[in-house]
Amino acid sequence: MAEEVSRYHDLSKIFFIPTYIPPHKNADSLANARHRYQMVKEAIKENEKFSVSDIEIRRKGKSYTIDTIQEILGSDAPSTQTGVDSGDCEVFLILGSDSLHELVLWKSIKRLSELCYFVIVNRPGYPTKIPEKLADLIGRDRALTIEKLQVEIAPVEISSTDIRQKLKKGASIHDLVPPCVERYIRENGLYVPH
User: Fold this and answer.
1) Looking at residue 39, what is its pLDDT?
2) CATH code of the domain made up of 2-157
3) What per-residue confidence (pLDDT) applies to 183?
4) Within 128-194, where are the H helices?
5) pTM for the whole thing?
6) Distance between first and last Cα of the chain
7) Are 52 and 15 in contact (CB under 8 A)?
8) How far apart (Å, rounded) are the C-alpha atoms in residues 79 and 22?
9) pLDDT the model gives residue 30
10) Phi and psi (nearest 5°) for 190?
11) Three-state DSSP state, 99
């Protein structure tokens, strides 16, 4: 998804930001935040346009995207502290269409839509049409911009939930994650019953 969006919109850099505690998901089935950070770091190390930031992990607690974007855009801290150099940049928030219908529940969604551009990427089984309620919350112009920025990719039938379920059952995941990530998961005994 990140590679396709990067090419389509000619983005100069993509930051992956693992959350400490996701506000809208059950964190019980997730690995420790530091493990998730390391897995992302391993998975993206070959792509020079990709970086990982621990900005939300260092903040601890539940992270809301609005807080992260405001910290990135308003940060006077050197990029080595935030992991993101905001400088004079436009921020594009890349989301799967599975998250599109949850946006109405996000903290300060209207303000967030003013600070960054949403790039919605299709996910199997989830529509890409902007919900009326979201358009009402953020305004029709911003909703139209979201539609214009959408990226259509070939469907990928991989989900993190499926990967965790396979690991719990002892099934192979070699075709679902990069070898370095599978190795990290196995070496650290992640997602398996103890």
Assistant:
1) 95
2) 3.40.50.620
3) 93
4) 132-138, 140-149, 160-169, 179-187
5) 0.83
6) 33
7) yes
8) 24
9) 67
10) -85, 145
11) helix
- The residues, ordered by sequence, that sit 6+ positions from 114 with a Cβ below 8 Å of its Cβ are 142
Report the C-alpha gap between 166 and 128 in whole angstroms: 28
One-letter amino acid for residue 79 of the chain:
S
Could you state, in order of their start, the residue ranges of all structural domains in the chain?
Answer: 2-157
Whether 164 contacts 190, CB under 8 Å: no
Place of tokens 């690991």: 167
What residues form DSSP beta bridges with 62? 21
Give me the amino acid identity at 54: D
pLDDT tens for residues 180-192? 999 999 899 888 8
> Cα 43 from chain centroid?
14
Q: Both tokens of residue 190?
A: 């992640």
Indicate the residue type of 110.
K
Between CA 76 and CA 87 the distance in angstroms is 10
The pLDDT tens digits for 73-82 are 985 443 444 4
Q: How far is CA 23 from CA 4, 8, 64, 77, 189, in A?
A: 27, 30, 7, 25, 25
**Torsion angle, alpha carbons of 145, 18, 164, 130, to 10:** -10
Residue 117 parent element (H or E): strand 117-121
Nearest to 113 by CA among 147, 152, 79, 75: 147
Confidence check: pLDDT of 145 > 50: yes
Structure tokens at 27: 């964190």
